[in-house]
Write a structure and sequence with these properties.
By secondary structure, the chain is mainly β. It has two domains: 23-241, YVTN repeat-like/Quinoprotein amine dehydrogenase (Methylamine Dehydrogenase, Chain H); 246-359, S-adenosyl-L-methionine-dependent methyltransferases (Single Sheet), CATH 2.20.130. It is built from one helix and 33 strands. Residues 1-19 and 295-309 have low confidence and may be disordered.
């Protein structure tokens, strides 16, 4: 084979690789939480609570997602709310307003006071999605661009172009810390995509539970949250696990109720033992034999789960396993519990899935 032909074949292979469809990401909805408006357009996670903003109306509502209760509401600077993100101190809001009018606001979540009113640093498109990577803001313009912005000098320090997906995309954004993935919601196609923040490459995608009405997006430390708009009966947001295997609790944590755990998505682990870990404190170590399994939740919390032997099961060939039913004791309402799954193979731990929080009712 000539050197020219070899290079030509290599080029053809590389070009073919660029045309490959994005990897489909498996996912499972863990829970849904109600809100009050049929066009929820922005979501932000703040210290185990979630903020919801609406495209119509100027209220920002804060919810406890584990008890499905509204904590309070504050007034937004306008009625064009889109993206939201909490940066550790303040709640940032992107409004559906074109420059040169101010469209980005920083809000004190304690007082509800607008601290900053800023004009988007780009000249075309509407401000829409918003997230924060620990240092910089990311803002989408609905023209298939996402900008990385330094909030102090208020200057663009980077940008990526993402694949076109109909008009007015992408919508809201979410940052996955540790993995450094940038997630974006696409209304027209109903997709939620994971992007490489360096070049915009689509690393994977899945169809949103809200399909064509997908809007708000945020990351809670372990999971995505999404919500939608433009549907009159759409009054909830969803917590979404995108890292199989998935474990969910079937039944409610009410006195004398019957509980069951179900595992799914363990397609490469059939025949292995699956153990549900259980913790009442959220900080105890999760022990499997002599091994301690620490799960990093954030920079300050190591979340582990104690072994509960009677929750063991064997994963079947479909990647599913289910515990037997067991009664839940008479525990007072409002007590938090965490659960996660550990898959054990012949040589030890195969995988550990993210912990899911539940609250007794």
């Amino acid at each position: 084979m000539s050197r020219f032909l070899a290079f030509a074949l290599l080029g053809a292979i590389l070009l073919a690789g660029l045309d490959l469809p994005a990897q489909t990401i498996p996912f499972q909805v863990i829970r849904t939480v109600s809100h009050t408006n049929s066009y929820a357009s922005g979501l932000a996670w703040e210290r185990n609570t979630i903020w919801v903003g609406y495209a119509f109306g100027n209220q920002l509502e804060q919810y406890d997602p584990y008890t499905d209760t509204r904590i309070r509401s504050i007034t937004a600077p306008n009625s064009n709310v889109r993206g939201l993100v909490f940066d550790g101190m303040d709640l940032w809001l992107a409004s559906w307003i074109q420059p040169p009018a101010p469209s980005i606001f920083a809000i004190n979540t304690v007082t509800g006071t607008v601290i900053k009113s800023l004009v988007a640093p780009f000249t075309a498109g509407y401000s829409d999605g918003l997230t924060h990577d620990g240092t910089a803001l990311w803002i989408s313009d609905e023209l298939n661009h996402i900008y990385q912005v330094d909030p102090l000098p208020w200057a663009i320090i980077g940008s990526i172009t993402v694949p076109s997906s109909g008009s007015s995309n992408p919508r809201d954004l979410a940052w996955e810390p540790y993995a450094n993935n940038l997630w974006a919601a696409y209304q027209s196609s109903g997709l939620i995509r994971k992007h490489n923040p360096s070049n915009g490459q689509v690393l994977g995608e899945f169809t949103s539970p809200y399909t064509w009405s997908q809007q708000g997006l945020t990351w809670d430390g372990w999971f995505l949250w999404a919500t939608g708009g433009q549907q009159p009966n759409l009054l909830h947001m969803s917590q979404i696990d995108v890292n199989p295997p998935f474990v969910v609790m079937k039944g409610a944590l009410t006195p004398r109720s019957l509980i069951q755990f179900e595992l799914s998505g363990a397609m490469n682990e059939a025949g292995n033992i699956f153990v549900v870990g259980w913790s009442g404190s959220g900080t105890s170590g999760f022990k499997v034999g002599t091994a301690m399994i620490p799960l990093t939740l954030d920079d300050f919390t190591i979340l582990g789960l104690r072994l509960a032997p009677y929750f063991s099961m064997v994963v079947d060939t479909s990647g599913t396993a289910t515990t037997t039913l067991f009664p839940w004791p008479a525990v007072p309402a409002g007590i938090p519990f965490w659960t996660c799954g550990v898959t054990l193979g012949p040589s030890g731990v195969v995988s550990v899935n993210e912990p899911v929080k539940y609250v007794t009712r």
